[in-house]
Amino acid sequence: NSCVTVLLLTGFLATILMRVLKNDFVKYAHDEETAEDQEETGWKYIHGDVFRFPKYKSLLAASLGSGTQLFILTVFIFLLALVGVFYPYNRGALFTALVVIYALTSGIAGYTSASFYCQLEGTNWVRNLVLTGFLFCGPLFLTFCFLNTVAITYHATAALPFGTIVVILLIWTLVTSPLLVLGGIAGKNSKAEFQAPCRTTKYPREIPPLPWYRSTLPQMAMAGFLPFSAIYIELYYIFASVWGHRIYTIYSILFMVFIILIIVTAFITVALTYFQLAAEDHEWWWRSFICGGSTGLFIYGYCLYYYYARSDMSGFMQTSFFFGYMACICYGFFLMLGTVGFR
User: Fold this and answer.
1) Which of 27, 48, 289, 290 is surrounded by the most beta carbons within 10 Å?
2) Alpha-carbon torsion 254, 222, 135, 121, what sign?
3) Which GO terms describe its cellular component (predicted)?
4) What residues contact 122, with CB distance under 8 A and at least 6 apart?
5) What region, left, alpha or beta, does residue 280 occupy, with left being phi > 0 and alpha being psi -120 to 50 degrees?
6) For 313, which DSSP code?
7) Helical axes 57-82 vs 91-104, angle rounded to 10°
């Protein structure tokens, strides 16, 4: 049902966008034929500002690198699940696969981040690599340290043994970091150059006053709601499996939902970016990334609903584990879907 609903809404949005684009092309073609010296309007008016490099380009490049790595990681996990690698009653296999694949794909993050950063004429690529390495792992490590300390205090079996922690740190030091650096060096030395189709003006144009619904927060709400509607039904079963006692084995359906999530996220971000440019707002770089990743915020909002309305969890330890690790997961979704929306 959710798939059908999302496909209908996506088709409706595609129809609207195509009609608007067609009208714009007809309008601009007519203007060129009748009055070439007439003042330009809409997205054509800001063609000299669209490819102006954004602020905090190192952070944007690091976010894209981490998001690309998490996307590849998710695809590999789905492929392993579809071929039957994960046994429903052995959750340790999934955890091991996440750690190993994340370490092996760190070179992708380094390459993507460094190459994009150098395309934006960045110079301090070493700092960019350090930021890429800690952008996702840093918050995850701090959250893990706090929650593992809580588990040890409560003498819970959820606490990881010291030996396992040492192994994870060795993997991060001996595998993740070297591959990240090698990928960064390859990305820095790549021949890819940023080639804008038009010349960027020396001074940016002033963005005209926009209505409230074209600001960042309303755009994030619109961009996150439609993709979230594609997955919210499956979220209950996933949560019940991870945080409850249910067994989830229908990985093929989950993979289809993931594909729809990616398609809808990309489409809604393209549409919102076009309408933003049509309103003569040329600061689209960060807006497209944030709008694409806003679904992660909706998922975390669903966590609040699930905890208070659907789960039987209580106490400080269960509450901290649920909201702590779900914050990390939703942050990963934000980076991954933000990358999809930007690309």
Assistant:
1) 289
2) positive
3) endosome membrane; Golgi membrane
4) 57, 58, 61, 128
5) left
6) -
7) 140
